[in-house]
């Protein structure tokens, strides 16, 4: 997300990487030997000269992007999926009511939302991610599974995986810059990460519902009325049933 501060446009680091990612492969191997701290300094110097600065610079995002290039194909797929899975979990935690114990219970371990697939579907159903983002996350999840569920050598260039990569949507320069399946996978992973982080930053905890105060006379009176109404209805129903059976 970009924020205008005076005459300077401030950009978060993950959004910046998503924007520049289509061009990063052209800078290798220089980028592969550059530390996240050095990359941050370089980007600041370049962007300062163009009137663009960036804020909230979590270096783990830079490390994530740079390490994807250094990983094997299998490592790249597993690392990207794991990072996006965690980002999605953090988005859901931000959306839920502010109860870390309760959210941890369903998001961790064997909780109902502990899987990448479940988190994707819930985030989509409650309106936190778009249909296309959901599709790309599921493709990334399937690509991860192709690498994770076999001991055989698997590569991004393998036909089935290459097709999944080519079907990925969030590639800003899909028609201008041809790229390999692996390069497209990395580019889309960064774009998806930027979208998730942008939503997380603008999402607030749902307010907790207030407990029903059973000590209030009106509440107690209303409950008693409901009980009486149900009791009366059941009594009439049973009486009617007996009359029918007796006739």
UniProtKB/TrEMBL annotation:
Pfam families linked: MtlR
InterPro entries: MtlR-like (IPR007761), MtlR-like_sf (IPR038026)
The protein's name in its UniProt record: Mannitol repressor
Any one of the GO BP annotations: negative regulation of DNA-templated transcription
Alphabetized SUPFAM superfamilies for the sequence: MtlR-like (SSF158668)
Domain of life: Bacteria
